[in-house]
Amino acid sequence: MEYQYPISHHWTTEEIVDVIHFFQSIERAYEKGINRSELMQAYRRFKEIVPGKADEKNICNDFEEVSGYSAYQTVKKMKQAEDGEFLRMPELGKE
C-alpha cells in the first residue's frame, strides 16, 4: 500500500517503529490474518506510546482514512477472541 502512517514528531525513533509495527499488524489482520497474541503485544506497546483514548482514536481514525483498515474494529475483535486464536478481518467493504 502507498500511504504514510500517522506519527507524531514527539515520539522517539523506537516509538515510531513500534507504532508502525502496530499498524502493520492491523494490515496483516485484513490481508492474511494474524495471531491474537502477536496483535495483542503490538497493541499493548502502542498503548504505552499513546495512552490516551482521545489520542488513540485520532491516530487510528487517521490511519483508517489513509488505509481503509479499521484499527478500532480489529482491536475490538482481538479483545473478544480467545488466547491462541487466529484473527482474520473481513475483506474491505464486506463487513
From TrEMBL:
Which InterPro entries does the record associate with it? BH2638-like_sf, UPF0223
Q: Which domain of life is it from?
A: Bacteria
Q: Which family does it belong to?
A: Belongs to the UPF0223 family.
Q: What is this protein called?
A: UPF0223 protein ACFSCZ_03155
Q: Which organism is it from?
A: Siminovitchia sediminis
User: What lineage, starting at the top, does this entry show?
Assistant: Bacteria, Bacillati, Bacillota, Bacilli, Bacillales
